[in-house]
Design goal:
The protein is of the alpha+beta class. Helices cover about 25% and strands about 35% of the residues. The chain has helices spanning about 25-40, 50-85; strands at about 95, 100-105, 105-110, 110-115, 120-125, 130-140, 145, 160-170, 175, 180-195, 195-200, 205, 210-215.
Length: about 220
């Protein structure tokens, strides 16, 4: 039987541009697949599942290649949508992690607590000078509970408008309970820091990711 000589060339043919072998085309794939079928063991041929699997893998790779080509554009579009959504927060009331409370027109702001367990919360209210002006307790459950101050001072009078700080501790049968104090405030402005949104809430800055609730 005559044998056809095959010469292996390791470089591009003169006059033809060098090809980027990091990419595989549809024709390359089908050529390889046909060669695999022609040279398979007739006693153990490729089954339908394997054949379908190879076609599916190539289809996925082809889709990923197209996706990667559009990734930069998609990222820019996503950032634009995200920035637009964050701008909508300006002027809204939000709930964030914080100890501040405000009295405005005689009405105290809403304060919440996210507790790890049920227990009794002891709240110490301080004015802007750091003086303790009121102390009260509230029963809390696991999860979110309202611990808002009613605006009454220790002497029974009503607190004047301004900013106050709530120092909270929670106990259950004498054991300390973990918690996060939450405050509600008005978003006054928005800025960006290293790609992250930062909102100004009643003269305090918070990351957008720290917002628990938008009202």
């Amino acid at each position: 039987m005559p044998v056809t000589s095959v010469t292996n060339s390791t470089g591009p043919v003169l006059g033809q541009p060098a090809r980027d072998y990091s990419e595989i085309t549809d024709i390359d794939f089908m050529t390889l697949l046909v060669a695999q079928i022609q040279n398979q063991d007739p006693m153990s041929p490729m089954d339908n599942a394997e054949f379908t699997g190879q076609l599916t893998q190539f289809s996925m790779l082809d889709d990923l290649s197209a996706l990667n080509g559009k990734m930069d554009d998609n990222i820019l579009v996503g950032q634009s949508i995200n920035n637009t959504a964050m701008l909508a927060l300006v002027g809204k009331d939000v709930t964030v992690a914080g100890k501040a409370a405000w009295v405005e027109n005689g009405e105290p702001s809403v304060s919440m607590i996210n507790s790890d367990d049920a227990g009794t919360a002891t709240v110490e209210v301080k004015d802007e000078s750091g003086n303790v002006v009121a102390t009260y307790t509230k029963d809390v459950t696991a999860g979110l509970s309202d611990i808002s101050w009613n605006g009454t001072l220790a002497d029974g009078s009503t607190a004047s408008d301004g900013r106050y700080t709530l120092n909270v501790s929670v106990e259950n049968d004498g054991a300390a309970v973990g918690f996060t104090t939450l405050m509600t405030g008005h978003v006054e402005s928005l800025r960006y820091e290293n790609g992250a949104g930062v909102v100004m809430v009643d003269d305090q800055e918070f990351y957008v990711s720290d917002i628990y609730k938008v009202s």
